[in-house]
Design goal:
This protein is rod-shaped. The chain is mainly α and 167 residues long. It is built from five helices and no strands.
Length: 167
């Protein structure tokens, strides 16, 4: 009864692994949304600045024609500043959008956790079975299973390192 109560209180390894993977996904989506919001905000600022520059340019053009070369230099300077701000915002926003998106979480960390979560109970059961006086065939099969499990873990770790070195 006490064992059943403890098992009910502790989350399973599988739920911890799934929770860890979902947390990775949440962080990835958060970074993606943040980068697109920043780029969109800068592009919006650039577009608004260009509209203001066009308005000032039109007003300056009319006023320059009316006054005949008096105040239009001031309007040209203000309009030019907004044009530069607008172009700068559009270029920076475009550069931010051209960056590659962050990689989708692969789940390799969780796969390793799952392997360890499966390997440890199996190995302890096999060791406990061999100590309890099982027959020779069962002991040989248990030893073979432990060797295969250790080889599988080592091969998957080597494959992961080899794949990371090639990237």
């Amino acid at each position: 009864m006490d064992l059943a109560m403890r098992a009910a209180r502790q989350p399973s390894s599988l739920s911890l692994i799934v929770g860890s993977y979902l947390a990775d996904w949440r962080r990835w989506i958060g970074r993606l949304i943040t980068s697109y919001a920043l780029a969109g905000g800068l592009m919006l600022m650039g577009a608004v600045s260009l509209l203001i520059a066009i308005g000032i340019g039109v007003a300056a053009g009319f006023h320059a024609i009316e006054v005949r070369y008096g105040i239009w230099i001031a309007y040209a300077a203000i309009g030019g500043a907004f044009v530069l701000l607008g172009l700068l915002g559009l270029v920076i926003g475009r550069v931010l959008l051209a960056r590659p998106a962050p990689h989708v979480p692969r789940g390799s960390r969780q796969a390793g956790m799952l392997k360890r979560a499966v390997a440890a109970p199996v190995a302890t059961r096999l060791i406990a079975t061999t100590r309890s006086g099982a027959d020779t065939t069962t002991q040989a099969m248990a030893a073979g299973a432990v060797i295969l499990l250790a080889a599988w873990l080592a091969a998957s770790r080597f494959r992961r390192r080899h794949a990371a070195a090639q990237d």
